[in-house]
From TrEMBL:
Keywords: Aminoacyl-tRNA synthetase, ATP-binding, Cytoplasm, Ligase, Nucleotide-binding, Protein biosynthesis. InterPro entries: aa-tRNA-synth_I_cd-bd, aa-tRNA-synth_I_codon-bd_sub2, aa-tRNA-synth_I_CS, aa_tRNA-synth_I_cd-bd_sf, Glu-tRNA-ligase_bac/mito, Glu/Gln-tRNA-synth, Glu/Gln-tRNA-synth_Ib_cat-dom, GluQ/Sye. SUPFAM superfamilies: An anticodon-binding domain of class I aminoacyl-tRNA synthetases, Nucleotidylyl transferase. It catalyses: tRNA(Glu) + L-glutamate + ATP = L-glutamyl-tRNA(Glu) + AMP + diphosphate. This is Glutamate--tRNA ligase. One of its GO terms (cellular component) is cytosol. A motif ('KMSKS' region) lies at residues 240-244. A motif ('HIGH' region) lies at residues 12-22.
């Protein structure tokens, strides 16, 4: 490559959503490029016309956008570049590095059957490799590359180490089918070369492809990119991650209420490590990420670890950013949107909501007190808590709150003194107060709720609850 700039790519097939394994591959490419001031490109491998859909392409782009993995330039369609792929195959044919093969499917199947019966290698050796063009028949043909027949091919892999393949194990790969369409193996190499890709970071299920793809690089005299084949993700049971392990698409995790920053952090740690660091920011990940930190063994997806990291990210997030992400979560999950007032109230209350909430549903459950309206309907547990006090106590508290200055210290002192005057501890009052203010038994602290709700709303809710207790 003439430039020293790092260029990576993510190249999904648009046949479904953005799988969580694909999301991690994209993240690794994004981190590697962004941490080195390089480019991260996107290529949609849509050559399978029957299975590729615009909806799947849109879902992949949405998944990447939710994860915050921005790409440079427009996504490239592999299908639209078919003429360029064919041009390379024809160039290799003209240079004598590829040849026309007229063998039919039946002949190839017959060859393999005979080889199997004789206990020989079933690797197809075309009789047309060195045939005289004068003997060519008038029938359809494929174009095959001339694979090296002796020696070895070495894949210098940054994760797997050097992988050596004997060249007599490589067949003369088809480049162009008999209908003139290019095969995937050719398309990938041509696209990666033309896009200036310097580092190919992808799943290790592609490792076997690398030797065949390297043949094309060598035949064209192109520089081979840096290979890095990363282990796949397994479920908690050690088997390849599949639908039975739960959510698989990136957007499903958004709809479950995981924050994107926590998801990025967790996926980065899935198969890559930087010392003992578990929690880190995007800036740290970009600065630290390298290929040497990627392990050779499959990583195990652990939902509890994901939740734990997401909780840490929610706790340190900017309040306004959290509000925006929660609005997007509600839309993704198909849940009712918040009103403008509810959004404002949510952001105002964030200081007492974001600690110890691992997901947005957990945070919104804690936020019930600010999202609900009077009269507050208590749930069964809250109703029980209300029944432990007389309505008199809640009514008596009102004048004390009327005169209190509305600061946390003063509210703590006022309520502490009030409890003492009634021969009890504040802890005994806390349950009924939670029920009165939020209609729930598990809430942020009573003082935090009062500060967020303000004097007028707090007193009104206590009066409502006193009326409710009195009418039971």
């Amino acid at each position: 490559m003439s430039s020293d700039q790092v260029v990576t790519r993510f190249a999904p097939s648009p046949t479904g959503f953005l799988h969580i394994g694909g999301a991690r591959t994209a993240l690794f490419n994004w981190l590697y490029a962004r941490g080195r001031g390089g480019k991260f490109l996107l290529r949609i491998e849509d050559t399978d016309r029957e299975r590729s859909t615009p909806e799947a392409t849109a879902a992949i782009l949405q998944g990447l956008t939710w994860l915050g993995l921005d790409w440079d330039g427009e996504p490239i369609s592999q299908f639209e570049r078919a003429p360029r792929h064919a041009e390379v195959a024809l160039q290799l044919l003209a240079e004598g590095k590829a040849y026309k093969c007229f063998s039919t499917q039946e002949e190839i199947a017959g060859f393999r059957e005979a080889a199997r019966a004789e206990g020989k290698s079933t690797l197809f050796r075309s009789p047309w490799r060195d045939a005289d063009p004068a003997t060519y028949p008038d029938r359809p043909y494929v174009i095959r590359i001339k694979a090296p027949q002796d020696g070895t091919t070495v894949i210098h892999d940054q994760v797997q180490g050097d992988v050596t393949i004997r060249n007599d194990q490589l067949d003369d790969m088809v480049l162009l089918r008999s209908d003139g369409t290019p095969v995937y193996m050719l398309a990938v190499v041509v696209d990666d070369h033309d896009m200036g890709i310097t580092h190919v970071i992808r799943g290790d299920d592609h490792l076997n492809n690398a030797a065949r793809q390297q043949m094309v690089y060598d035949a064209m005299g192109w520089e081979v990119p840096v290979w890095a084949h990363i282990p796949l993700i397994h479920g908690p049971d050690g088997k390849k991650l599949s639908k039975r392990h739960g959510a698989l698409g990136a957007q499903e995790y958004q709809a479950m209420g995981f924050p994107a920053a926590g998801m990025r952090n967790y996926l980065a740690r899935l198969g890559w490590s930087h010392g003992d660091d578990e929690f880190f920011t995007d800036d740290q990940a970009k600065a630290w990420f390298d290929l040497t930190g990627i392990g050779k063994s499959p990583a195990r997806f652990d939902m509890k670890k994901l939740e734990n990291l997401c909780g840490q990210h929610i706790a340190v997030s900017d309040d306004a950013a959290l509000r925006h992400e929660i609005v997007a979560y509600l839309a993704a999950a198909g849940l009712p949107a918040l009103s403008q007032d509810q959004e404002t109230g949510l952001e105002k209350a964030m200081f007492c909501l974001k600690d110890r909430a691992r997901t947005f549903p957990e945070l919104l459950e804690k936020a019930h007190f600010i999202l609900t309206e009077r009269p507050v309907e208590p749930d069964a547990k809250a109703q029980k808590a209300l029944e432990t006090v007389s309505n008199g106590i809640l009514s008596e508290l009102t004048p004390h709150l009327q005169s209190a200055s509305w600061t946390r210290n003063d509210l703590e002192a006022t309520l502490g003194a009030f409890a003492e005057d009634h021969g009890t501890k504040f802890g005994k009052l806390a349950g009924p107060l939670r029920a009165a203010l939020a209609g729930r038994a598990v809430t942020p602290s009573v003082f935090d709720m009062m500060l967020v709700l303000g004097r007028e709303e707090t007193i009104a809710r206590l009066k409502d609850a006193a009326g409710r207790v009195g009418s039971e």
